[in-house]
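Re: [help] complex structure
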Amino acid sequence: MNIKLCTETFNLNNPASMETYISLGGYEAWKKIVERKSSKLEIINKIKESGLRGKGGAGFLTGLKWSFIPQQAKQKYLVCNSDESEPGTCKDRDILRYNPHAIIEGMLIASYAIGASVAYNYLRGEFLDEQWKVFNNALEEAYKNNFIGKNILSTNISIEIYSLIGAGAYIVGEETAMLESIEGKRGMPRIKPPFPAIKGLFGKPTIINNTETLASIPKIMLNNEGWYKDIGIGNSEGIKIFSMSGHINKPNNYEIPLGTPFSNLLKLSGGVLNGNKLKAVIPGGSSVPVIKGEDMMMTTMDYPSIAKAGSMLGSGGVIIMDETTCMVSVLHRISRFYYSESCGQCTPCREGTGWLHKILSNILNGKGTLNNLDQLNKIANQIEGHCICALGDAAAMPVRSFLKHFWHEFEYYVEKKESMVS
Amino acid sequence: MKVFINNKEYKARENETIIELADRNGIKIPRFCYHKHLSVVASCRMCLVEIENIEHAQPACSTPVQENMKIFTHSNKTKNAQKNTMEFLLINHPLDCPICDQGGECELQDVSIQHGESHSNYLEFKRVVIDKDVGPLISTEMTRCIHCSRCVRFGEEVSNNKELGLVNRGEHMEIRTFIEEGISSELSGNMIDLCPVGALNNKPYRYRARTWDLQQHGAISPHDCIGSNIYYHTYNNEIVRAVPKENHDINQTWLSDRDRFGYEGIYSEDRATKPMIRNNKKLVECEKEILLNKTNEIIKSTINDFGLDQIGCLISAQSTSEELFLFQHLFKSMNIQNIDHRTNECDFNYQENYPLMPSLGCNINDLDKFDNILLVGVNIKTEFPILTIRFNEASKNNTKIFSIHFDSLDEDFELAGKIALNNSDLSKFFDKKKPAINTNNKTLIIIGPNINYLVNQSQILDSITKYSKSINAQQGYLTDFCNSTSAWLFGNIPHRNFGGQPTNKPGLNVSDMIKSGLSTYVFFNLEPEHDFWNASAVTEALNKSKYNIFFTSYVTPLIERYADVIIPISTFAETDGSFINIEGTYQAYNKIVNPNKNIFEGWSILNNLIKMNNLGDYNISSIRSFLLKSLQNIDFNYSKNKKFKNINSKSITNNYIYKNTLRHIYASDQIVRRSKSLNLTEQSHNKFIYISSDLGQILNNKDTLEIRENNKNYKVKNFLIKKELPINTIVYTSSFNNTLNESKSGHITIKS
Ligand SMILES: Cc1cc2nc3c(=O)[nH]c(=O)nc-3n(C[C@H](O)[C@H](O)[C@H](O)COP(=O)(O)O)c2cc1C
Ligand code: SF4
Ligand code: SF4
Ligand code: FES
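Output below.
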């Protein structure tokens, strides 16, 4: 099967243009909805039935999320999360620059379905030079063609879409921190409940979806019921982009049906660099537990299979590590990321991420002790489950999995004051 | 709803959080970020508790209770979770408790003794945070900060003056002022109380004493008419600091900076410390006996030689109820009727219509029940800072608040409208233009002391009263001193006696007493330099009179020059006292510190004179029980039942230039004026003379104002043009009146 959704335009000429998108059936779904004044419930049900899961990390069922919105509320909002900052993940970045109209059409359909008259797309600060411009151009084109704005296609439907750009904080990717940021406040996650679907942006019901999630919507709506579901396997319906990076011959974004064996994906991306042996894989962005290479080879790329192997599909950022990789340095690097990206409000995350990083730095500098390794585990346990948002867990999970699978390497480093692999 | 804490059943309220339920039932849960008057952020993670069937311990401050929820506040899981949080909090904390002023009352110290470990697993370097100088009232030691954000939320949610914020992320997060400036909120001291650790501390109190050596005395703050409840902490018979005493109806858990630091004025160097009488033109120290005899002799001889109406008795409304009662009792029993407390005023034509005593017109708790509140001639931010919190609550509760004033002043709550009018337009405003409010709604009109100081106060009060009657609005007052209520009620006015009883022969008001040059003046608790409408007129009167008797806590230059008798008296802190606040609540307190041996408690020295003249003999409890009994019999509908007297005011035309004075926040009474710390604040540096832009144009870039007032000429430099001022207006901040040849408000001409 060679179905493409979000990446459909990627290899065409002028991928981001309105013509290209329309030539592939773009805006057909939206036109139909507008012309027929489709029922909101039907749209939500179709998305529910498709089994589409959020591609932002948590894999939450999109249709189910939409159905939480109180339909009778007057003002509602849709937010598209294009803050993509998870290390190892670079799919939204390409959708934004090669297929922006799919995002726009997805945002329109989602806004219509939940009854939002205003939608925001929040892009990470580093997208300022390219994606920001491309997306804004597309937005302008769509406005010109009256797909957005007042009285869309001469009906009484009106939806406004605004784009916003962040200032470079990873934490703003967390949905409630994003809402704070849109409101002009410091990007710090809120406590849940209340969930955004009940009390979100400016206190109004709000749905936040990932860029890829929303860009998937138009084709799901355009095709018959069951189409999307049939692409994948049970419990992991559909298709997903995997960002292949690390020790790999052809690093790139690959959009493949869920359930595809990992070995196929590895082949597709040209195999491990220099034909080296696969040592370890982080399958879903830096926040998820690492899996040993041999275990990874047994998995298929879908939610249950990766979960069985002890990790998560997350955002689909697959980081490939070959036998030359020093696991101590990798974990040290990951810990630095969370240390500098913690927003700082929760005590365990603020203090714990710094502590983890300092201990790992000491180990790397040859000043570690065996006791430090237990301490790392203990601190990770103290953080996990005790914070406001999932960043705390994201900082803890890699630590525990690295130590679990590669304890001997850490032990070696502490004792010999040098890496086992170099 | 049934909820179980530690296997015991409790009745919980719908939507209640675990911590609220626990607090109501006296079950202890440690916390840092939670505070009942602030929003819940659940970020410190100190209050984690085990809940049955939930994997991880959950924050009690943000988790709502559910039917049959089973919570464990002492289980191993709970203890572990709390211990872990504690460990995280301490790794970057300097643990410098021995030199920290918070020691002994530090929430971190308390919790860590119960939950922490005695050794540290953290061997890395601790975070160091550079300290900031945020002003004279708060000292910072930011390395101790545990980032609970209480101080930040206070600014955002309670005082509505966002001065502290979070900058940077993660471990580098810091609490600081956004711009390199100090904290200037009038309520800033509350952040000291809120800060659970020693990061924000009381600067003047720094290193003065350890908390466990302090004695605590409940009292009532004497610096405004709100009557905030306060604890003074003393060490060796000296007040070393003040903190709020919770009173849900008045100041809740808050205190204004003026109330918190004002007491410092007690320790000013110009305290009157010994009895003195003038002998051969020189003041000499004397015994109490001689002092009393001399005082009595002066009063007696004035009455005998010059007549009852040749003695003028003036008392400050900052005096205690006991003092105010005995003062008028002493003199009125001798048939002296020249008694007044309204020393900052000059237009008394409205006095017959004035209520029995000033009152806010509602309870402080009920301010948010009005649809509209019109503030006339009052700036809450600088005159009644504690009420900023209440007006904030009201505006959040959809009360529309308007400001009508002779100046355009900022408030820290949302104003629905603000209008600046000069004196003449102010008096016409309520007759002609009228405020743009829905008059069917519940409206409260509050008149501030700045109106009382105006040359045409009677005209303005008259028009407001007629207006508020016509729309059925509630009319209220805020007064300049903490006890103007008692001063009015107990008869420290020339035209009414105790309890508002009529007199058949009204005495002179303060203005006429000064103008007509009496033989003898008695001043109680008043500074001639600052506490009068026109200081130069007072100087003249003191100069011309035969005798001047001063009951005073301070010896000012004018007192030193003109006093024939100086009776050193207690401040509020050195005596048992009571005040009636502006909602009419009588609040009494006991002596906080003992006065020096030659300083007399105000009430007791008055009682000495009363006894000498066989006019009775009182003690604190007998005065209090008398006052309380009388309060029950007083007819508070007094002015409603009275026929309204028409006012003939001096006619006011547009051609005048009006010079008005604003009360300065930290010059509002004689004690506050002497508070060292408050004098160092930014507010105290902000003393200006503003002129309206039309006057600026006339002046044509000249840098000197040549003013003619009451047939006197004087010059003023260093003035600023303020665009928002109404035409023909000059506004002074009060401390400028030191120059003596000025009145607090007046009609002037300027030479252009
Ligand atoms: C620390 C943190 C960072 C996150 N960053 C992103 C991000 O960059 N992009 C994204 O789509 N979701 C991110 N998420 C997940 C969002 O909170 C949210 O679950 C997601 O946007 C929902 O969209 P979906 O249901 O379409 O997946 C992040 C979550 C956390 C806890
Ligand atoms: S877990 Fe970390 S990033 Fe998330 S809210 Fe708490 S401190 Fe901020
Ligand atoms: S300064 Fe004090 S109140 Fe403010 S955040 Fe730090 S610890 Fe909390
Ligand atoms: S008190 Fe509950 S998390 Fe701070």
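Chain A has a mean pLDDT of 96.
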